[in-house]
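Troubleshooting: if your tokenizer reports a length mismatch, compare your output against this known-good record of 214 residues.
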Amino acid sequence: MKDAGKSGGPLRAQPAVKRSRIQTRNRKRILDAALEVFSAHGFRGATLDQIAAEAGLSKPNILYYFDGKEAIHVTLLNQLMETWLDPLEQMNPEGEPLEEIIAYVQRKLDMAQAYPRESRLFANEILQGAPRMGPHLEKRLKPLVDQKATLIAGWAAAGRIAPVDPRHLIFSIWATTQHYADFEAQVNVLMPEGGVFPGAATYLETMFRRMLKV
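Known-good structure output:
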């Protein structure tokens, strides 16, 4: 029943395995606990003992389902990659350019609100040099960014949005939306209670509209 993961290795697809309800429930329990631990401590700072304690399971029980910390981390990153790519994939070449970009900003902000732990998991992996996610960045993320950058550049060249470097635009959208997840503790201290995401949505929409409107 184990998910194997070679230490230090890149992400790779795991074969489908038929599992019982109990096995499925326990795997989810372990992965939920691991997400909490990894997002708080990063891969290097996390331990199997911490994951076991968070899951309310014994360490041997964890090792029944996964070969080790690496295998759990790789499984989480594989799951995260699909979630990570989806908002950008939805940018429609047939749509109105400015509205498509604003909608992408909102989707990224929604993701920061809904998945703060996943965002921090991704950020921690990148800060460590993407040792497990590097191949996915090359094979999945880069072609998608290249495709959407070409689309945005075409919109700008046609005068449908203001001139802009498309990759820096995408990077700035990531930075201004993911900040609310990756620096959640700081944001919660500095912002009025309950006012973070509605205010962020209004501010970011206004900023990007002013930047891109022709």
